[in-house]
UniProtKB/TrEMBL annotation:
Endpoints of the signal sequence: none
Protein name, entry field: Aldo/keto reductase
Superkingdom of origin: Bacteria
Protein family membership: Belongs to the aldo/keto reductase family.
Protein keywords: NADP, Oxidoreductase
Residue ranges occupied by any NADP-dependent oxidoreductase domain in the UniProt entry: 18-267
Source species of the chain: Planococcus shixiaomingii
């Protein structure tokens, strides 16, 4: 793994600077993929109840030689679940699936259901957050946060709740920097986690990225993941291929400020 200092949440909890993402990895493949990641130095594993792979993610971690406290585990409250009691119930399901006594990080997966993107669920999010605050205060979760939340969504939490989110997990990659949201999170000491740092592979054939990767003698994926770190975000690359799992963590290089400016000017692949 790249020798980086860990990110530190505002409550003092440290989180490894690269996470192994498990989105779109079926439960039957999750055991082997997570085991491979652990074998190759990953100590930060990201899953979610909605991924339907928590059982084998948890089994892989339990069967591996590392102590529980040496692995950082994230899971998420499903996007469609809003409310206090509903959140407590979903958390219990996640903990049971994983076979764990506690989580290192628990996130509200999205501010709205995936089939109703943009719906105003402010009150439901507030109630879910209060339930997560309770779980945090009971020691069942070491840190709590959100995912896919805009400035407005986060502000609603700040205006009504006690604990400032420790993390906001958002799509962040070359071409999609979300500068305003990044600055907002930094102001409130919220760590930004970059999911889909490779834009689900859509940016790997970009001529500019290919050319720059060649300059640094790295793969396009390595360049993209390193870019997230250079922008002070925490990347969550995902793969089921052992070679790529290893490569994605070999980031012992830095991108010059001049080259960062070039990468920052690349357009979002979604606009093409």
């Amino acid at each position: 793994m790249a020798k980086e200092i860990t990110f530190t949440f505002h409550n003092g909890i440290e989180i490894p600077n690269i996470g192994f993402g498990t989105w779109q990895i079926p439960n039957e493949e999750a055991y082997a993929s997570v085991t491979t990641a652990l074998e190759n130095g990953y100590t930060h594993i990201d899953t979610a109840l909605a991924y339907q792979n928590e059982q084998n993610v948890g089994k892989a971690i339990k069967d591996f030689s590392l102590a529980r406290e040496d692995v950082f585990i994230t899971s998420k409250l499903p996007a469609q679940i809003k409310g206090y009691e509903e959140t407590l119930k979903a958390f219990d399901e996640t903990i049971t699936n994983l076979g764990m006594d506690y989580l290192d990080l628990y996130l509200i997966h999205a501010p709205w259901p995936w089939d109703e993107v943009g719906k105003d669920c402010t009150e439901g999010n507030i109630q879910s957050w209060k339930a997560m605050e309770q779980l945090y205060n009971e020691g069942k979760i070491r840190s709590i946060g959100v995912s896919n939340f805009s400035e407005r969504d986060i502000q609603a939490i700040l205006d009504t709740c006690t604990i400032v989110p420790m993390a906001n997990q958002i799509p962040f990659y070359i071409g999609r920097d979300q500068e305003s949201l990044l600055a907002y999170c930094k102001k409130h000491k919220i760590v930004v986690e970059a999911y889909s740092p490779l834009a689900t592979g859509q940016i790997l054939n970009s001529p500019a990225i290919l050319e720059m990767a060649k300059k640094y003698s790295v793969t396009p994926a390595q360049l993209c993941i390193r870019y997230c770190l250079e922008r002070e975000t925490l990347p969550l690359p995902k793969s089921t291929n052992e070679t790529r799992i290893i490569e994605n963590s070999q980031l012992d290089f830095t991108i010059s400020s001049e080259d960062l400016k070039i990468l920052e000017k690349i357009e979002d692949v979604r606009t093409k």
